[in-house]
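Fill-in record for TECT2 protein.
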Amino acid sequence: MSGPRVNSFFLGSSSGVNFSIIVSPTDEETGKLQLANCSGSKRAGDWNLNVTPGMDASKVTISLTRNLQLCLPNATDCCATPLCLVDTLQVLACRDSVMLARLLIQAEIYANSSFTGNVSENATIVPSQVFQPLGSCPCDLTAGACDVRCCCDPECTPGLKQLFNESCFTGVFGGDVNPPFDQLCSSQTMEYTPDWFPFLCVQSSLNNTPFLGYFYHGSTSTPRVPPFKIPSQTSPGKLFTGYRQGDPIMTEENEYFTVPQQSMAGQCVGNAPVAYLQNFDVKCLTDLASYKEGLPHDVRINSGAGDFIQQNVVYRTVTDMGKFITASESLRTAEVLCQNVTFAEHYTFIWKDKNIERINVTVFLGSLCDGEILTQRFTVKFLGLKSTNAAELCGNPGYQVGKPVKAANMNASDTFGSLNIWQPAGRGLCTSATYTPVLFGLDSLSGCILEVDINEDCSLLRGNVTEKLNSLIQATHVGKRDNSSYSDLNDWVEIIRLDPFNSDTNVSSGNLKGICPDIPANLNIRIIFADVGAVQGIPWQEILAVHISYSTVIWQFQCGLTCENSISFLPITASVQFIKVPAQPPIPMTRFQINYTEFDCNRNDVCWPQLFYPLTRFYTGEPYSQCLAKGLLLAFLVLVAAIMSNPWFSKLWNSSLV
């Protein structure tokens, strides 16, 4: 510790536990601490011990009672040197003279550096920060003491610097206020130094450097565009010409229309913009203390054509509270604070072409009390104007990102199939895990835990794991498009399966108890898709192939410290990967392009095939007429030079002069 107070915690019940503190000197000959016993008290020298008991943990506070000011002339009860105190403390927790726990503390405390003298009235001249930073060692924060990792601190002795010499602060904070410039001769060790560098380098001190510093002069202005706003258009006409897929939906105030969504880290972001034609269904955890209301439902939305539409809101009351209240810290009493909050919001956007025609919102309200945890649900769906249900998006037959992948079982009378991954709940066991459909364009990884006995037969274990993984894929085909017809086999692609290898238990494991090799614990689903066109500016995406394989692991029973429990755990996972390929195969390279790479313009800085590029129609830097005129003039000059360099031209010229 380096301060006058430190806190720690004693885990467990503190009933009948006696806490004490001891200042432990070290043996001068051996350098070891003296053995401590349970006969101490809560005060030792200048140290006090305070214990705040709790239900499952007790807070232990050690504090220093002496004065830490530097001594003035003829003063007592102060610190004579900057290093005021060096002590070794032992905090003991005993019950009936039996030591339960011990905490060792090394205290090295410096005196306070607050100024108590007379203040001079002389004005301090601050140098220009452009050329000379204020302070040559910014990491020197403590006066009269050595700051750890600050190698430019003059109070740090060579002995102290050896402790952190390899971990010094770098950059301007570590005192590198004038870094060596590139033209300095001592910088020759830099990478890619040219050969002529020693002849043109500069011999100079760092005080005479062209480096202007890390600071600059200049006026600062606050941005006029507030967060989540776009600048208004000054040109006459409508603000929007229509939405495209992925564009943020705008409000009447020229702000983003936001609904809580999950970020890449898994946390809920309350002010996330809603993207056009992108559905989502998220759940967010909150309590009464951190609950925040979203955008009001009277906000009007820009339809995309320049006009604004009002939301059609329907309010309902939640009847089954158990679907939303997931935990409660204590029983509800009459004194508990409760508030009427939003449990769920379901948005339905009716769209046509590039515009939004109508917005329907269903809001579920309920009472949330202090101590309860609420699972809020927010959904957004986009439905075509001609669609009567949530099954299809009007106009585009291809898949859209975030929509479930369509599957079918052509070997059954009921051809409806499913392609799912796990959605664990509770302890994450496979017995309690539910299914969630595979969403197009979203790579995912899920899994659950399978309980395995130590005497488990390896063949039965392989079969059980394979059955669990195959339960996710109740299909033989996957729809090429989102509107694939179950009656047309050409609308479907067959799932390519690579079944797991079935090994012999007696040969593979050698009859070892608690070890099973070749367990197919990982299911790999790879979906290959491509953009085959576009409908109203929205990409038309189709699935080309689906491949399913298994990855095996070696399961070994883990017993931990003791092997009293005969149950171990085997995690099994399912991963989904979407691979985008070109709709048409790329043009293969010719033999000339493979062998003569120096003529490949994509691999070299000099491109000889494009020598006459300015004379082609692809060059747009100048009008084509000017390029053609310059090209003809250049060709004429080359032709004249070739004629004049010929020997017969000089003979003809001499004969004409005679």
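KEY FINDING: The chain has five domains: 5-109, 169-215, 238-388, 399-503+512-584, 613-655.
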